[in-house]
Design brief:
about 180 residues, mainly beta, 5-stranded mixed sheet, 5-stranded antiparallel sheet, 10 strands, elongated
Amino acid sequence: MTTLPPRLCTAPVRRVICALILALSTSACGTALFEHRIEVAVRDASGQPMGRAVEVSVFDSLMGSSDEWARRTAGPSTASAPYVGRVTATATRTVMDSSLPQTISAGLAIPEFSTQGYFALNLQPQPGAEQMVELPFAAYNPDVPLAVKVAPLPGRMTAEALEKGWLIKLTVTMPAGPPPPGD
């Protein structure tokens, strides 16, 4: 059996070794995976629930921003049940850091409103507070100019921290009138 030399067993040396081990273990970093749940309720221009199902899609716009990509996750939002989408994201975290991301980026497609693009979700969740949001319009093909400028989509959201991501409850209000030209 091997024993440590007496000079390594002194209290100051043990403290330095413990401090070094603690510093190395807490400064290590890696990539954390988050899954955000985004529930979308659609209201008409007067703020009332839509009287029918509206197809919507929440999608990872960093992985793809085409109409085809957006439709892969499409589903109905009804007055009785909001659409539920999930978006995964990664972030660099240290060993002891379990905080959730400060922003969520995704796309929100509503084909009934426009087949030429989607609304960009750049959300900064604040637990417990209702937040007003304006979602800017983004064209599926930015190289082709749109016939008209599309106004941001108004909405409100609440956020709740989950174990490995955010729960976002988003309510958007469809504008009155026909969809933008080109649809």
